[in-house]
């Protein structure tokens, strides 16, 4: 027996792009097994339907109202950015993709789309690279993100070869030494550590990120962990952990990392023969 309530889950994707509560649908009773929505045209205002389809001004305005009503909703922000991009407003799309990455830093698609626009609009290699790497880390199984990242790397390698024919591909992976954007530096450090296994390189970029933003507790914690893991420098690690805890005293990840460090350091003091 089918449910008698109206169900629109068939229109929603796995990310829940459609929010029925925001739609003014009038339900009309049918038979004892079915119900019907009279004004299904309301779906034209939903993110899951409008993506990739150019909207008129009324459609844009309607969706903008939804974003204004819930300005920190990452799904609304991402869908509105999709809409603006479909309508050719790339500057507007860039703004709302950025806001979506702020609302949900783990959304690989938003990170990727923002990276693509940063590269397309500004040719900012460092910033685009940082967001592409963050996208890969957020959703490493997403083939579309890997394809976009590979395309970006191919383009910057081509640009490098035009400027310097002897420049190796690996040089395109470097962040400019003058870059002082803490988010770009942090993302690159995370990428080097988790994807490349380059702990020394990760330490360098975490330190640069911390210098750019001394109040980032997560970065200070990563500096502490690497100081201990790479150099076994107890004093330096303790200093960075102190900075991390001062910046984010309730962060469970930082507290866990600090507890692990204290346990290992104490065990080492008690059993120096393990070194």
Give an overview of the whole structure:
By secondary structure, the protein is mainly alpha-helical. The chain has twelve helices and two strands; from the N terminus they run ββαααααααααααα. The protein has helices at residues 47-50, 57-69, 74-86, 90-103, 108-122, 125-138, 143-163, 182-196, 199-212, 217-231, 234-247, 252-270, and strands spanning 27-29, 35-37. It has a two-stranded antiparallel ribbon. A hairpin with a 5-residue loop joins strand 1 (27-29) and strand 2 (35-37). Helix 6 packs antiparallel against helix 7. It starts with 26 loop residues before the first strand and ends in a 5-residue tail after the last helix. Mean pLDDT is 78; it is low at 1-52 and 165-172.
Highlighted features:
single chain; 275 residues; mainly alpha; 2 strands; 62% helix; disordered N terminus
């Amino acid at each position: 027996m089918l449910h008698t309530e109206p169900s629109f889950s068939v229109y929603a994707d796995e990310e829940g792009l459609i929010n029925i509560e925001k739609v003014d649908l009038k339900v009309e009773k049918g038979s004892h097994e079915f119900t019907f929505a009279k004004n299904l045209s309301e779906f034209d205002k939903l993110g899951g339907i409008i993506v990739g389809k150019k909207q008129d001004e009324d459609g844009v305005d309607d969706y903008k109202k939804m974003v204004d009503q819930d300005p920190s909703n990452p799904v609304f922000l991402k869908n509105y950015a999709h809409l603006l991009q479909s309508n050719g407003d790339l500057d507007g799309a860039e703004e709302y993709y950025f806001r979506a990455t702020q609302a949900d830093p783990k959304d690989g698609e938003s990170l990727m789309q923002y990276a693509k626009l940063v590269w397309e609009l500004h040719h900012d290699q460092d910033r685009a690279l940082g967001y592409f790497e963050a996208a890969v880390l957020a959703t490493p199984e997403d083939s579309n993100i890997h394809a976009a990242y590979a395309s970006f790397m191919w383009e910057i390698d081509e640009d490098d070869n035009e400027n310097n024919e002897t420049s190796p591909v690996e040089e395109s992976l470097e962040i400019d030494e003058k870059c002082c954007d803490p988010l770009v530096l942090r993302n690159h450090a995370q990428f080097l550590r988790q994807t490349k296994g380059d702990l020394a390189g990760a330490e360098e970029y975490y330190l640069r990120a911390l210098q750019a933003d001394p109040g980032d507790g997560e970065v200070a914690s990563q500096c502490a962990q690497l100081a201990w893991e790479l150099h076994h420098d107890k004093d330096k690690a303790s200093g960075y952990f102190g900075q991390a805890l001062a910046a984010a005293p309730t962060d469970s990840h930082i507290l866990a990392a600090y507890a692990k460090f204290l346990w290992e350091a104490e065990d080492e003091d008690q059993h120096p023969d393990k070194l």
